[in-house]
Amino acid sequence: MPRRGWIVLVGLAVLIALPALLGSYLVTVFILVFFYGYLGQAWNILAGYGGQLSAGHAAFLGVGAYTATLLAMHAGLSPWLGMFAGAGAAGLLGALIGALAFRFGVRGFYFVLLTVGFAEVCRIVALNTDAVGGALGLYITFTGDPRQLQFRDNRAYYYVALGLMVLATAVTGLVERSRLGTYLRALREDEDAAEALGVDTFRVKLLAIVLSAALTGLGGAFYANYLFSLQPNAVFGIPLSVDIIIRPVVGGAGTIWGPLLGSLILSPLAELSRTYFASGGLAGTHLVVYGLLLIAVVLLLPRGAYPELVRLWGRMTAKGR
Question: What is the pLDDT of residue 271?
Fold first, then answer.
């Protein structure tokens, strides 16, 4: 096994053993690190590798969360199974957006606006549909039953979130090494040139958005059963999409480890700043912190933190020879 493979295995073993050494608050922080790393990885497939910038990924998470929750409430389906139905529903939404956008050649900022528009449509529909809770949203009764994706011990959520992050990272790794990944990188660099060379750009982009949307929707059941409520303004809102986007942007979009590093940097910062500013009567100020950090990254680290670390490590090892 290559040295990198051993490093990954050792790191995973450390993460598995870590909850035994952490208090409840730090376990919660790591749950957020893993979950937003998972969501960032799902976004990374479409936007990081394919260059199709989506600012409405909250729609996919919300559709997955509502689908799994409604199936659990009205059909008695376990969220462990409902999450796959949620992934399917989110994938269908992704296919609809992709079919409309890519068939008519929507690119760049127009694609960004289209994804935002779909997220807003989902939010407004959820707000005004009593069957899905309307403006009051949905509230999930806590039972503590693991079969309902509910746990009395917070460490169980830690392991589920870790599993989701590992799954998304493995899928991203497979995509990167596959023909699909090669095509996506070609599209990102020059879509017209890729199409001239025979790449079926419509099919490639459609596969990417369906995979990205399905992965995001898969996490919806976890989101719902971790928070025990779904509010349309929160789950379909722009702030959640920004939370998803900023992790891979800061860490390094288009890389396997960038979204994870970005989440490791931002999730603790977000939790601390949210707690600090909320206690001072400045709720929402953490979004200003996000904005300033994003400006700094764009100016100082335009490729993200992970590529810069790789570059610095390469320099250090070259000097040591």
Answer: 80
